[in-house]
Amino acid sequence: MIRIKTPEEIEKMRKAGEILACVLDILEEAAKPGISTKELDAIAEQVITSYGAKPSFKGFNGFPASICTSLNDEVVHGIPSEKRILREGDLLKIDVGVEVDGLHTDSARTLIVGGEVVNDKVLRLINTTREALEMGIKVAREGARIGDIGYTIQKFVEERGFSVVKALTGHGIGRQLWEDPPVPNYGRKGKGIALVKGMTLAIEPMVNMGGEEVFTASDGWTIKTSDGSLSAHFEHTIAITDGEPLVLTRRWEKN
Ligand code: MG
Ligand code: MG
After folding, report:
1. Nearest to 206 by CA among 142, 121, 132, 99
2. Residue 53 contacts by C-beta under 8 Å, 6 or more apart in sequence?
3. Quick check: helix, strand or coil at residue 33?
4. Any idea which ligand is nearest the CA of 24?
5. Strand ranges (DSSP E) for the chain?
6. d(C-alpha 179, C-alpha 171), whole Å
7. Could you state, in chain order, the average pLDDT of each consecutive group of 10 residues for the chain (255 residues)?
8. Distance 86 CA to ligand 2 centre (A)
9. Dist. CA 29 → ligand 2 center (Å)
10. What is the pLDDT of residue 254?
11. CB–CB of 110/126 below 8 Å?
12. What are phi and psi of 135, to 5 degrees?
């Protein structure tokens, strides 16, 4: 069932989303060589709860942490651990969910630990994924179809020689972290359900440097690329309006 949100619900999601943007800013700053992903998780939980908000991921389907941290060939859903110490040049994906008054938001970023670009192709992978998300957001307007989002993302990514993960998708979001409809990162123009004002969606391209195939690691959570290639991930929660989509997981002044 697709839930259309009231303006009050969207306003609460916007509050949650702004906290989430702050958390990601803080984590990006903290993600230096030598820190463990467990320490990043502790920082995130502390910041989220200091706002009186809740980490959406903690306990979701039994997930044991407040954020997901996925390194290099790990695509998404990596579990923070004291054993995973960040190293210079690691490709780190941080995924965070924040709940305010029963309403959830979800957002993710990819960064190079230490910030130094050692490989132009890695930078191109990151930029392509970020731009694919922006392009997907741009077409998410009332009257467009879900397939238009996926078509736009897939075309852009594949033209640059990378592949989109098809085994996992974006999703509706709001009262639940995962709601209908699924938002695939592939699709056909003009196909799928129509986008309507008040729909709230998490759009999240996962882009592999090699093939699209992925598998679940032995921890039961971490999704990895089958060929061991690097993967990038960016995500925003947006609301469909009668004009430009509203990006809820961005600082307000940037909207
Ligand atoms: Mg996410
Ligand atoms: Mg998501």
Report:
1. 132
2. 16, 19, 98, 99, 100
3. coil
4. 1
5. 54-55, 67-71, 74-76, 91-100, 103-112, 163-164, 170-172, 179-183, 200-203, 206-208, 214-216, 223-225, 231-233, 236-239, 246-247
6. 6
7. 95 98 97 98 98 97 97 98 97 98 98 87 97 98 97 98 98 97 98 97 98 98 98 98 96 65
8. 23
9. 22
10. 53
11. yes
12. -70, -40
Distance from Cα 168 to the centre of ligand 2, integer Å: 10
Distance, CA 137 to ligand 2 centroid (Å)? 14
CA of 170 to the centre of ligand 2 (A): 5
Nearest CA to 134 among 17, 254, 6? 254
d(CA 142, CA 125): 30
Q: Give the helix, strand, coil percentages of the chain, each rounded to 5.
A: 30, 25, 45
In this structure, are residues 244 and 203 in contact, taking their beta carbons and an 8 Å threshold? no
Pair 209, 105: CB distance under 8 Å: no
CA of residue 98 to ligand 1 center, whole Å:
10
Query: Amino acid letter at 245?
Result: P
Q: Are 153 and 132 in contact (CB under 8 A)?
A: yes
7-248: CATH architecture: Alpha-Beta Complex (3.90)
